[in-house]
Amino acid sequence: MSRFNNRSRVSTYTQSWVSGFDPDFGVYESIAGTVVVGAGGASTLTFSSIPQTYKHLQIRSMARNSADNISLRMTFNSDSSSIYTLHELYGSGTAAAYASQANIAYYPCALVGPASATGVFGISVTDIMDYQITDKFKTMRTLTGYDANGSGYVELTSGVWRSNSAITSMTIVPNGGNISQYSHFALYGIKG
Q: What pTM, to 2 d.p., does this model score?
């Protein structure tokens, strides 16, 4: 019985318990509460004046678009120069593939639910590492996908913004159409 008196929870995700071990996974704090796109949709979404008091950032989204075969693209500090690079692994349930791109003007941060699939939203979580540090490039990773009742898509993407600038703003735009009504976006800071 005494061996259970001194236990610590390791992770809220796994609900695992280890005696005498309490690692620091960081604390998520809301920077910009949930932004819900209103009637008529939106052609762009911007998070600005991002405080420089966190170690990392995380953006969570649930989104759909007014057109099919669309993804969301992110730029930092209004920088649309060709200094972004990405690697991606993706699959549709029947096929898988990979790709990489260098010297592009954005980071693809989310798949969105297609307009032709009623009520389908794409889900995305993007982590931006060391966003406030000014002596290194910024790295990102994204897990995103959607299910359209038997069809769908999943993607794991990593990338780099080859700039030493601290990230103070980020803009999200679709590569076509508009971000649809009821799409949700939230920005979190991760204490380190």
A: 0.84
